[in-house]
Specification:
alpha/beta, TIM Barrel, three-stranded antiparallel β-sheet, 9 helices, 11 strands, 18% strand
Length: 298
């Protein structure tokens, strides 16, 4: 197992201009991270080969792996032309992953901001053929580079263990697997321990995330749906409330979740993904320390 950090964890500093992505890579290495996961928020790599090369060279310089390249995508477009354009756009992102030298790439399948009324299981089954076609075509394109593409349990549509497993089986490609996010199961009101148990055999990448969880009727304030990246409360599928926490400080039973991961024999990358209210460097550093302590304890 190699424990590292997603650049997304330091998004506050990237967006404010306090850090560049190269600074983030240095920071991760300085704080004991063994890899960096590249998530192009706060910077852009497409059509920027000089920065791609600089990122790859910086990771080599500080002695850490680039584990994964993770991007947004939405194949549920209104017309065929837009669908094809999105596939071509994601293929260009696969080219970025190849130039970075990674062998794992996560791309979304549908928008994580898709309205809840259009995110039912009926909608999922109706849209499944289009999602399968797109994911097969991207996986087949990535295969030329030896890249495994992945689906993450993310948002309110392609989330929940059963939906993710169904998609993976329907795509039916050896290089199409899963990025398992320990927190996102709760977006669909699924126990993160149960979600991890059901999906760990499909995982080639793990995001270690923690949340605070409250029942809606016992909480006075309203959540801001879809603002999961800003440290505010947001609603789950059923209307409960979540807020990002420092890994190990929240309400997820990470001792049990990490025991599931460890004792499954998983020996890949685990990436801290912090999206809480605390200052991002402090929150990420504490989460990294907590994660190492929990892994050693279980």
């Amino acid at each position: 197992m190699k424990l590292g950090v997603s650049t997304y964890s330091l998004l506050q500093a990237l967006r404010s201009g306090e850090m560049t992505v190269l600074d983030v890579i240095q920071w991760i290495a300085d704080h004991g991270g063994e890899h960096v996961e590249i998530v192009p928020f706060g910077f852009t790599l497409v059509d920027n080969p000089d920065l791609i090369d600089a990122v790859r060279n910086k990771a080599e310089e500080v002695g850490i792996d680039i584990s994964n390249y993770a991007i947004l995508a939405d194949f549920l477009k209104d017309d065929k032309e837009a669908f094809e354009a999105e596939i071509e756009r994601v293929k260009r992102e696969v080219d970025v992953a190849h130039r970075l030298g990674v062998k794992l790439m996560r791309h979304d399948v549908a928008s994580f901001r898709r309205p809840l009324e259009k995110s039912t299981i009926i909608d999922f089954e109706r849209e499944l053929p289009r999602m399968v076609e797109a994911c097969r075509r991207i996986a087949d394109y990535a295969a030329q580079y030896g890249i495994t593409t992945t689906v993450e349990n993310h948002g309110f549509f392609v989330n929940g263990s059963d939906r993710v497993i169904r998609l993976i089986h329907e795509v039916d490609r050896p290089n199409y697997r899963m990025t398992l996010d320990t927190g996102n199961f709760w977006c669909m009101d699924e126990d993160p321990v149960v979600g991890a148990k059901k999906t760990i055999s499909y995982a080639v990448m793990v995001h270690l995330k923690d949340f605070y969880h409250r029942r809606a009727r016992s909480f006075a304030r309203e959540g801001e749906l879809f603002r999961c990246d800003s440290g505010t409360w947001f609603k789950t599928y059923s209307g409960d409330l979540l807020r990002g926490a420092i890994v190990g400080d929240g309400d997820i039973d990470l001792f049990e979740v990490m025991a599931v991961i460890k004792h499954s024999g998983y020996d890949g990358y685990i990436s801290i993904e912090f999206e809480g209210q605390e200052e991002c460097r402090a929150g990420t550093r504490i989460g990294l320390e907590n994660a190492r302590r929990i892994w050693d304890a279980v």
